[in-house]
Fold:
Amino acid sequence: MKFVYFNDTGREVSIHPATEAHGTKCDMSTIHPLEVRTFILPENTYPWVKMWDYGEERGLSILVSPQSAD
Structure:
């Protein structure tokens, strides 16, 4: 399954390392404002998404974790 994220926050968004560790494939580089990023999840899963705001100093972070569709 594909999950597409559009960064309309006006800030850079880092990708949490657990995204890749949980089995989601993507470009792990920072997502810049107005950039689109595609996340590829294993078959028969759907995305569970969590975003953190660590403030101006550390910025935003997103986790995209596949969840079983069963």
Notes: The mean pLDDT is 95. The CA atoms of residues 27 and 37 lie 8 Å apart. The longest strand covers residues 45-53.
